[in-house]
């Protein structure tokens, strides 16, 4: 089993996630199978909760939970570049979103974030402390999105374990702020859902626990 684990962990996020569990279970299996019995009793036996854990991990390995199964909203709310910023902000406030994907003619253009809005506001404040938002369009605020605020497009069939790993992984290009899920993970496809860092706790609940 050790050889199989070493061969697959570099290319499989699920194997990487459960590697410590699999190694521990491998040691338990070896103790049961290879060490002499004391009479008719093995020197180690798996507890019922350990067997249940193994079954859950086994099921996840064979049939991974896909990110498309974990999208919480039935439809994605998006913005258009020529849309008034006021309307986009109302949508964000109404649904407690910190970002909205922006599409033009069916093609992804960028992610409107509350951070970008804050940077835009800071740049627009006049000497009197006033900001006029009435005629501002979404595309004007997109210029204030930091290039380090990374967004990736993924197919709905990508495993939840892989998505969690992407959010946790440190990247020199900057933190991952959103995953836009579509049928095949293309920027030209209709978004099925948006996953952000705040969704991690919900994603983790769908998987067996990590660690031994």
Describe the structure.
The protein has 212 residues and is α+β, with helices and mostly antiparallel strands. It has 2 domains: 2-63, no CATH class; 68-205, CBS-domain. The protein has helices at 2-9, 13-34, 48-62, 85-95, 114-124, 138-142, 160-168, 200-205; strands spanning 99-104, 107-113, 150-155, 176-182, 193-196. A 3-stranded mixed beta sheet has the order 3-4-5, with helices on one face. Strands 1-2 form a two-stranded antiparallel ribbon. Helix 1 (2-9) runs antiparallel to helix 2 (13-34). The protein is elongated. The chain starts with a helix and ends in a 7-residue tail after the last helix.
């Amino acid at each position: 089993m050790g050889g199989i684990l070493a061969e697959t962990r570099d290319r499989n996020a699920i194997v990487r996630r459960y590697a410590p569990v699999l190694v521990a279970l491998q040691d338990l299996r070896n103790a049961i199978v290879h060490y002499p019995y004391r009479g008719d009793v093995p020197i180690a036996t798996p507890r019922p909760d350990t067997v249940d854990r193994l079954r859950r991990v086994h099921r996840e390995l064979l049939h991974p939970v896909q990110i498309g199964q974990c999208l919480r909203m039935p439809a994605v709310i998006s913005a258009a570049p020529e849309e008034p910023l006021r309307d986009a902000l109302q949508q964000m406030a109404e649904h407690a979103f910190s970002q909205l994907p922006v599409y033009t003619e069916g093609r992804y253009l960028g992610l409107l974030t509350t951070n970008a809005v804050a940077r835009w506001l800071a740049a627009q404040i006049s000497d009197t402390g006033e900001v006029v938002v009435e005629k501002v369009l979404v595309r004007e605020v997109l210029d204030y999105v930091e290039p380090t605020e990374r967004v990736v497009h993924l197919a709905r069939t990508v495993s939840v374990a892989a998505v969690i790993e992407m959010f946790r992984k440190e990247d020199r290009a900057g933190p991952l702020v959103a995953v836009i899920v579509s049928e095949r993970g293309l920027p030209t496809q209709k978004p099925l859902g948006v996953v952000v860092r705040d969704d991690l706790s919900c994603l983790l609940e769908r998987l067996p626990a990590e660690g031994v």
